[in-house]
Design a protein that fits this description.
2 copies of one chain form a homodimer. Chain A is an alpha+beta fold. Chain A has 3 helices and 12 strands. In chain A, strand 2 and strand 3 form a beta hairpin.
């Protein structure tokens, strides 16, 4: 069955600085109509930057929606026309004061498909070098370094709760494990085992 | 430094059926003021239900915000006063037609802390039994079963993009691996190895 919902009428109900909220009338697969309330968002990028000692760069900032500080990977929204890769590199530089010339994509994240079209592009950066933070005037961010295995345990025990941070860390960890297993295999082969 | 932002004035800018959007004036740690646009959401629950053959129950539904079908774990928002555990069990029953009496929490997820206060409570359910779907009139959901390891690969290769589904699956997988390693250890001990 084709589950496509077709737009009948769209109405912008809030035109904010960050959020653009729409109430759309749609037709359902059974011919009935329904309302969809959604947030249109420019999308974002986040980056798990791991140094040679396997420490990951985090930012801790006050998140007004939750009324508390939240530990997250460096991230931010895409600027107009900006490629996700460059947004990730920019946020890593601005928020964490780090630069990496070895960054690979870790896939996309749909934060809450029921009501937002936001896509977060995840990246893994190797061996970042310090270059100094450059925050906006109204940005207050503390940088923390946490050993990858400790960070993964903080995901598993519930201390890290941000969605992109949980997903990106676990994917980065599984990829690092895979790469290190491959390396061991190759070393074994070279030694003729 | 205390990074707390204090509410100066709150204004509801959209009072929808699902979404409640606020534009709040807040005071920043440096004394300046700023605007926060946020979505207030009742929260949700999702569940990774794994049967004895290590197959996971998924739902595929059209997500209007993305204009396409998205593969997700059974999930839904909390009803007024509903405990997350019961919401997860209810959604598993309604969306996937499954009941489990062995369900454990896998932590919380903040989908997009920059603009929503939604919390998704994740659960892992063992050995679910079929009981028949009971969808709302305007819900169109296809149920799919996918082998856990295949599903994890679909997360790693980018085929599964929903945030709660990625996080909950990877956590479930790592927990299952840990439990199975523990079981092997105990068997080894019993055999006096």
């Amino acid at each position: 069955m084709d589950l496509t919902e077709k737009l009948l009428e769209s109405k912008e109900v809030f035109d904010g600085k960050l959020l653009h909220v729409y109430r759309d009338e749609v037709s359902l697969p059974n011919g009935a109509s329904s309302t969809r309330e959604i947030v249109r968002h420019p999308g974002g990028a986040c980056v798990c930057a791991i140094d040679s000692d396997l420490n990951v760069a985090f930012v801790r900032q006050f998140r007004y929606a939750y009324g508390m500080e939240v530990l997250e990977l460096p991230a931010g929204k895409l600027e107009r026309g900006e490629e996700p890769y460059f947004a990730a590199a920019r946020e890593l530089r601005e928020e964490a004061g780090l630069i990496s010339d070895d960054m690979i994509p870790l896939g996309e994240l749909f934060p809450s498909p029921g009501y937002t079209d936001e896509i977060i592009h995840m990246f893994l950066a190797f061996n970042p070098e310090p270059c100094g933070q450059s925050l906006d005037m109204d940005e207050f961010v503390k940088v923390e370094k946490i050993f990858l295995v400790d960070a993964v345990n903080m995901v598993l025990n519930g201390e890290i709760r941000d969605a992109k941070t949980q997903t990106c860390l676990l994917k980065a960890y599984m990829l690092m494990e895979y790469l290190s297993a491959q390396e061991e295999d190759e070393e074994d082969k070279e030694e003729g085992k």
